[in-house]
Amino acid sequence: MNADDLKKQAAARALELVRPGMRLGLGTGSTAKHFVDLLGAKVAAGLSVICVATSEATQAQALSLGIPMSTLDETPELDLTVDGADEVDPQLRLIKGGGAALLREKIVAAASARMIVIADDGKLVQKLGRFPLPIEVVPFGLEATRRAVAQAVEAAGAAGELVLRRRPDGAILVTDGGHHILDAHLGAIERPELLAQALNVVPGVVEHGLFIGLAAGAILAGEGGLTILGG
Ligand code: 5RP
């Protein structure tokens, strides 16, 4: 079974959590895309739900499948959000933002009664940080913000290079919110809560990819079957 099959398996299991009338948050990335595809088929077969997307890409996909879409202004409280992740640790702390959608992903997750992560089990790590931590920053004052981020990272006991994310064509990546992303190559994050707090107070940092206390559960698909964390 390849990684994409595993992602689809996790998405299919998450679909079992969806009930008629639910208000859903739809994640971003290749795993979440499977969930939206499967949800679209259910909607076509008569399931009634209302959804909020975490990115313009997911919004376009959902609309193309005929899924009824709303916004957090019209629907500020969601029942369930299903989203992927770049890393998950056993305490359900996450690194997200590999797809540059972390800001909307975190807002939607925070507005949800329950967030469930779907992923292949290669995303499960004992310690976060092998995947570069995305930090979303405003373009104004980028170099000053980069230095302040480096100091905050150091103060939190971590260290590593901060790399401005670029698109495949070499242009600086711009997020859906009009910001840039610094990817922090930290290797291992010993104290994720401390790092999150340190980054939260840096002027110019809009959001970071440490999701702590947001995921209620994770569905991780591997060759040996599904691993379920949390509930
Ligand atoms: C996007 C994300 C994604 O959920 C994360 O990058 C995982 O993506 P994939 O399912 O493609 O591995 O956080 O910002």
UniProtKB/TrEMBL annotation:
**Top-level class of the enzyme under EC nomenclature:** isomerase
InterPro entries annotated for this entry? NagB/RpiA_transferase-like (IPR037171), Ribose-5P_isomerase (IPR050262), Ribose5P_isomerase_typA_subgr (IPR020672), Ribose5P_isomerase_type_A (IPR004788)
EC numbers for this chain = 5.3.1.6
Q: What pathway does the UniProt record associate with this protein?
A: Carbohydrate degradation; pentose phosphate pathway; D-ribose 5-phosphate from D-ribulose 5-phosphate (non-oxidative stage): step 1/1
Output the Gene Ontology terms for molecular function.
ribose-5-phosphate isomerase activity
Which GO biological process categories is it annotated with? pentose-phosphate shunt, non-oxidative branch
Q: How does it assemble?
A: Homodimer.
The record describes the protein's role as:
Catalyzes the reversible conversion of ribose-5-phosphate to ribulose 5-phosphate.
Which family, according to UniProt? Answer: Belongs to the ribose 5-phosphate isomerase family.
Q: What is this protein called?
A: Ribose-5-phosphate isomerase A
User: What is the organism lineage in this UniProt record?
Assistant: Bacteria, Pseudomonadati, Pseudomonadota, Alphaproteobacteria, Hyphomicrobiales
**Gene name of the encoded protein:** rpiA
